[in-house]
Amino acid sequence: MAVDELRESVRRDLDALSHMARRADDDTMREASVQVRRLVIDKTVDRLRKQSRIKGEVRVRAFDISSWNEPSVRSKVVTAMAGGAMIDDVGLIAGLLLNEGDRAVGEGVARDFPLSQYLSSTCMMIRMERPTGRRAVAQVFDLETVSRRDLIKYVANKLGGVHHDQSRNPQTERAYVLLDNAIASTSVPIPPLGDAAAGTMFGMRHAYWELLAVVQALVASRSVMSLVDLEPVPHPLDLVPSGPDAGRP
Q1: How many angstroms separate the CA atoms of 32 and 36, rounded?
Q2: Which of 24, 27, 174, 178 gives the lowest tally of CB atoms within 10 Å of its CB?
Q3: Comparing C-alpha atoms, which of 110, 44, 132 is closest to residue 248?
């Protein structure tokens, strides 16, 4: 694909996502997964960067919840989601952690990820029972993780964004099995940004809420949007404390 044609394709997709980023519903996010997959899984953004002779990966600002996988925390986690979306002009805090007491805790640190690291980073943790293969006195649980790459491919390739596919290979598509469990939950308590004690209920399903955060992070990235001369869209994570190597992308 010639560079001008590629730039126009990326521009159309980012422009469409800029509008979809304001619509917080499951159907819109399923539709948005088509553009997101093309941009970052099929790598049209990275191909345009290279053909434009721009050095260094584009960067995306998002919540880093990797510290919740540390031994001191992981044993208490039931569900953790990175999130970080804005809905109806209200920033919703990311890093939603549901611990053993069913209490929602808004924590986490915003970080600027190179795009490849962003896609590999964890967006969701789910406690799942571990099959022991024998009769056990007590249940054994593992905290399993889902990457942002897995999330995008799940919505696009399994939930009907690009393809609808009900098959799941438990060996090679474990993340999709985990997301099937998450998608069954229709509402989660999300504390508003800056007020973690005030929980509200919002009716987006977990996986779609995470994808909304991905969409908003992409169109908020200055290095992504500047590839096609578009202005970045304001992002709620601008209000969140930054990690040690963070800075506006």
Answers
A1: 6
A2: 27
A3: 110
Ordered per-residue pLDDT tens for the chain, 249 residues: 799 999 999 999 999 999 998 887 888 999 999 999 999 999 999 999 999 999 999 999 998 888 777 777 667 777 778 888 877 666 555 555 555 554 545 556 788 999 999 999 998 887 766 655 555 544 545 778 889 999 999 899 887 767 676 777 766 677 777 777 766 554 444 444 444 333 333 567 778 888 999 999 999 999 999 999 999 998 867 666 666 554 344
What are the C-alpha distances in Å from 196 to residues 96, 199, 233? 10, 7, 24
Query: For residue 204, what are its two tokens?
Result: 């987006």
pTM for the whole structure: 0.82
Cβ-contact 19, 198 below 8 angstroms: no
DSSP of 87-151, one letter per residue? Answer: ETTEEB-S-EEEETT--EEE--EEEEEEHHHHHHSEEEEEEEEPP-SS--SS--EEEEEEEHHHH
Closest CA to 40 of 19, 67, 60: 60
Asked if residues 56 and 46 have their Cβ atoms less than 8 Å apart, the reply is no
Count Cβ atoms within 10 A of the Cβ of residue 121 and give its class: 0-12 exposed, 13-18 middle, 19 or more buried. buried
Rounded to whole angstroms, the Cα distance separating 28 from 161 reads: 10
Q: E strands, the chain, where?
A: 59-64, 77-81, 86-87, 90-91, 96-99, 104-106, 109-114, 122-129, 141-147, 188-190, 200-202
Cβ(123)–Cβ(147) below 8 Å: yes
